[in-house]
Specification:
mainly alpha, globular, single chain
Length: 133
């Protein structure tokens, strides 16, 4: 049941990205182009995600325990180290160069293109490399 709920959550997330236009890398590149033809769509998608998450967490915390588990699995580390900062920098650079972050990239597989394929191969290579380092 937990696996099914995970797949359903991923499907809902991908659907939201597609409806919000975030599977179009030109929207992300347009958002980063503040000196040119700026596209503010990403702000509205992120704002909607923040509001939804804020409300959702408030409702979930009132339950005390998750529906399909004995306790919530929350991260315990709060320190900033070189691996975290380096990974965040690589993520941002990759997102800015390609216009894709992992969620929208996977949601865009139905419309596979050469740039998307290159991004997905680089992402998989990064995962492989991160496990080896």
């Amino acid at each position: 049941m937990k696996t099914l709920m995970g797949y359903l959550a991923g499907l809902l997330f991908g659907l939201g990205l597609a409806i919000g236009g975030m599977t179009d890398p030109a929207r992300v590149i347009g958002f980063l182009d503040i000196a040119g033809d700026w596209d503010p769509t990403l702000i509205f998608v992120l704002g909607g995600a923040v509001v939804t998450t804020f409300i959702g967490y408030r409702l979930v915390w009132k339950r005390g325990t998750p529906w399909l588990g004995s306790r919530f699995a929350l991260p315990t580390r709060r320190d900033l180290d070189a691996r975290l900062l380096g990974g965040a920098a690589l993520f941002g650079i990759g997102w800015g160069l390609s216009g894709y972050c992992p969620g929208p990239a996977v949601a865009s597989i139905a419309d596979l293109s050469v740039p998307l394929t290159a991004m997905l191969v680089a992402m998989a290579g990064g995962w492989w490399l991160a496990r080896r380092v």
